[in-house]
Fold this sequence. Notes:
By secondary structure, the protein is an alpha/beta fold. The chain is built from 27 helices and 20 strands. It is globular.
Amino acid sequence: MVSKYFGKEGPLALQVKGFEERHEQKLMAQDVFQAFTDQTPALIEAGTGTGKSLAYLIPAILWAHQHDERVVISTNTIALQEQLIHKDIPLAIKTLGLETNYVLAKGMSNYACLRRLDTVQSERSLFATTSEDELMRIHEWSRTTVDGTRTSLNFLPTHAAWEQVSVQSEMCDGPKCEHFNKCFFFKAKLEAQNAKIIVVNHHLLFADLALRIEANNFNQSALLPLYKRLIIDEAHHIEDIATEYFALKVSRLEIMKTLSFLSTEFTDRFRGRLGLLRQKLTLSLKNSRMDILHFFEELSSHRKSALFLTDELFDSITTFYTLINAQDQKMRILEHHLTHPFWNSTLLVRSDALAKQLVTFAMTLQQLENALVECKSESLDEETKTLRLEIKAHSLRLANASEKIKTFFKGPTNNEKVFWIQTAGQEVQLVAAQPDVSTLLRTNLFDKMATTVLCSATLATNKSFSFVRRRLGLEAHPTADEKIHDSPFDYKNQAIVGVPIDMPFPDASDFTEKCIKAIKELVIASQGNAFVLFTSYEALKTVAEALFTPLQNLGYNMLKQGDDHRHALINRYKATPKSVLFATDSFWEGIDIVGDALRLVIITKLPFSVPSDPISQARSEILAASGRSAFVDYALPRAAVKFKQGFGRLIRSKEDRGCFVCLDSRLLKKNYGKVLLNSLPNCQQIFEPLDQLTKKMISFYKLKH
C-alpha cells in the first residue's frame, strides 16, 4: 500500500523535480508501515542516499491519519531536525495530500519566561552591568517574537543572561502564573498536543522519559503529550545519550552559581534574589514582623560557610588528582581510591561538611518561607511571589547537590554505576552513571511503545544487529524486524578506500612524524577539499601546528576545529576552494557536503574508545564478567560504527567521487581490520606504499565519472 507513493509515476515523483525511483527507499517505507501494523520494534540500517527520512515520514503520517495516533520522531542533530521540519515533512504532506499538524518540540529552557522577563525589567539594579544590555535586548525581543525561543533571537545571548530569563521547571507556576495564557512554552505544549507528528531531539525524549519514570506515568502527558509510536533516527547515539542523561552530576561551578544567584555580597549589602527579597520585606513588613529579617543574617553566615566549604572540597579533589598521579581528564573511582588515606581523612570529611552545610542553607530558606506564609499578607505574597518561587527552586538545587555529593562519596558499591571525577581547566565535576542502560530502555521505553522504529545509516555492525540489540535491551524482542538497505550509490566507481602500507602503528615513536608527511602528500594529491579526522584533540593540535603554514604557503585554505563554531567552520569550508579542515569527534558525522567540495577524507587512527574512559571500562568489565569478550563484543563493534560514520562524510550523491584514506595500518595488519573494512560499501581498495597510493589517487581524480 505505502510503496505506491514512491513509484516512478507516483505522488512523490510529481512533487520532486528530477525524481529518481529508489528501490531501497520503497522497501524501507514498507518495513516502517509493517512495524506499525505488527506493533513491534524494527531496526533498520539505511545507507547514505536511501532517502530514509521520507521512507519513515510518509508511512508515519499515513498511519497517524488512518488511526488517529500521534507519532514522535527523535533525532540527535539540529541539522536533521531542521531538515525534517523545513523540508521533508512539508514534502511528505504534499505527497500524501493530507492536512497534518506537526511541530518541533523543544525543552523548557529554550523558551523565554514572561514572568521572569518582567522581573528583569522592573529590577534592573539586581543584575551585573555585563548582563544588563543583553537582558534589555531580550526583553525588547520578547514583545515581537512569535515563538519565544532562544533560536529566534537576533543575537546569541550568553548562557548567564539567558539563564536569568528562561523557563525553568522548578520556577514555573503553571496555570497559576499571571502570564499563563501568553506563555510561549505552554502555547508550544498546546500545539504539540494538537499535532500528529512531533519532532524532538534525543535529550528531550529522555527528559520526558525521566518524568514518566519518576511519576510512574506512562498513560498521560508529561513534557510531551502521550504517544505510543516512536521513530528514533540517528539511533546509534541512543545508548550514550541515555547514559549521559540519567547520570548523577555535580560540580563546583554549579554550586557556586546557585549560591551567587541567591545572594552575592558587595561590601555591606546583599545583592541577588535574597538581597532583593530583603529590600522588599524591609519596606513591606510591619514592625511586629521585622524579626523575620534575622533569617538574612543566618543566611549570610551559611552562605559564607558554603562558599568556603565548596572551595575547600573541590581544591582537595584537585590535590587528590596530584597524589594519585592521574594523567587523564577523567579519573575513575576504584576500590583502592576509597581506602586511600587522603580520601578518608580529607575528602570524606570535607564532602560531609559541605553536604550538611548545603542542607542547612536550604532548611533556613524553608524556615524563612514558612515565616512569610505565617504573615498571611496577600499584598506581601503578591509583591514577593516571583522572588520566593525562584529562591525555592534554588534551595531545591542546593538540597539536590547535597544528596549527590553524599551519594558520590559513598563510592561504587556494585557494578550498577561507575563513578569518576573529571576536570577541564579549573572546573571539576563529580559523575556517577549507569554503564548498562539496556534494562532501563527496555522496561521504560520500548516495552511501553506499540511500535519503535530505530534507524540510522550506521546501526548494524558486520551486517548484524546483535550488538545494538544487546546494548539497547532489545534481545528480549525476538519479533523485532531487522533490515539493511544498502546505499544506491555506485561506490565501486565513486570511491577509493586506501591505506598506506608503509605507515607504522600508532604507538610507534615516529607515527606522528609519518602522519604529518602522509597528510601533506595526500592533500596535495587531492588538491585540497579534504577532511582530516582525528580521535584526539591533542593529536589534532600537534599535526595542525606542523602543517598549517606549509599547506597555506601552497595555496590551501586551512581550518581547524576550535577556531570557530562548527556551523561557521562548515560554511567557510564550503565557500572556499582548496579547503582543508582538521577536526575530531563532532565532525565524524552529521556533515553533509555534496559535490567536489569534499574529495578526500583522511582518518589518522582507528576510532576505538579511549581505554581509560570510565564508562568504556565498566562496560568491558560487565561483559568480561558474563564470559564475553570486551573487545569483540564492545570495543570493535563501536569502532566499526564510527569508522562507517567517518566514511559516510565522503559520498553524498550519485555524482560525488572521492578517496577515503586510513593512516592506521592496523586496518590491514590486525585480524580485526577485516571487520572494519567489511563494514564499508564495496569500493576500490588500494593498499600500497604512500607514493604509489597518491599516484593512483591523482589518476582517479582525473577520470570523468
